[in-house]
Amino acid sequence: MAEITKEDIRKPENLVYKKTELLTDKPLSYCPGCGHGTAHRIVMEVLEEMDIQDKTIGIAPVGCSVLAYEFMNIDMQQAAHGRAPALATAVKRLNPDKFVFTYQGDGDLAAIGTAETIHACNRGENIVIIFINNGIYGMTGGQMAPTTLPGMKSSTSPYGRDVHMMGNPLKMTELVAQLPGTIYVTRQAVHTPANVRKTKKAIRKAFENQKLNKGLSFVEIVSNCNSGWKMNPVQANEWMVENMFPFYPLGDIKVND
User: Fold this and answer.
1) Which of 111, 120, 132, 198, CA to CA, is 20 to 30 A from 79?
2) 44: domain range?
3) Backbone phi, then psi, for 241, in 5-degree steps?
């Protein structure tokens, strides 16, 4: 029998790709290089590995995240813009035996949905909030969001965000970590295999917390928006590492075991 070399393993015809059954077969409609697809897969893999897919309800509001129900092969419910935590609260209280999570972007969660986010976290609703932060309104034209960095250009801040005129970026994850109802608050990323593993571990911990009725778990995923940032995917990832991560540092912020 011939010895298998590294070159053989790297050949495309020899690569084995196993897709979780909890992702639909519909091609992803996100921009090439976007982190949403990776985040979707991680969440669905966790649900499959925990064998809770039949007990889980996802809530997707307005923004790029609204497309999640086209790709996640579980029970999903759309919410009005910013209202996902309020809807998730109702779903969980009416179905306490279900696993409930929201999947939200920064324009949704940190702008129109600020009140719903803050109060759900403060009450300690036994849900999981997954927060994709790319520092911009991605779906509607690349406008400045509450998370847009100082000096960062967008379609509504073409010369960069001026904090004296436009205010400071909102660090939602640090903010909700101060609230008594949050049990686990973390910030992760999905741009490298190592970060994907860390993010998957964080999401698994969040759903395990819900299983144990511990309270609200909040998982932020810092991502790119190469279309909104007017960069190719490689440039966007590099810009994210050099600019987003110093302002939004990765790692666990609050862990109450």
Assistant:
1) 198
2) 31-255
3) -65, -40
In a domain, 13, yes or no: no
Q: What's the CA gap between 10 and 17, in Å, rounded? A: 13
248 assigned to some structural domain: yes
Residue type, 64: C
Task: Give 69-121 pLDDT, tens digit per residue.
Answer: 899 999 999 999 999 999 999 999 999 999 999 999 998 999 999 999 999 99
DSSP state of 2: P
| CATH assignment at residue 84 | 3.40.50.970
Residue type, 28: L
Note whether 177 and 121 are within 8 A (CB).
no
Number of domains within the chain = 1
Instruction: Check if the beta carbon of residue 67 is closer than 8 Å to that of residue 30.
Output: yes
**pTM higher than the cut 0.85:** yes
Q: Kindly give, in sequence order, each residue whose CB lies less than 8 Å from that of residue 85, ignoring residues fewer than 6 positions away.
A: 102, 113, 116, 117, 119, 120, 121, 125, 127, 129
Cα 88 from Cα 210, distance rounded (Å): 13
Q: How far apart are CA 19 and CA 44, in angstroms?
A: 10
**Using CA atoms, how far apart are residues 227 and 148, in angstroms rounded to an integer?**
15
Residues 189 and 203: their CA atoms lie apart, in Å, by: 12
- pLDDT number for residue 1: 46
Residue 14 placed within a domain = no
Give the span between the Cα atoms of 148 and 106, in whole angstroms.
9
- Please choose, from the candidates 90, 64, 89, 61, the residue with its C-alpha nearest in 3D space to the C-alpha of residue 76: 61
Please give the distance of CA 184 from its chain centroid, rounded to a whole number: 15
| Sites in the chain below the pLDDT cut of 70 | 1-17
Quote the CA–CA distance of 18 and 36 in Å, as a whole number.
Answer: 19
**Residue 224 belongs to some domain of the structure:** yes
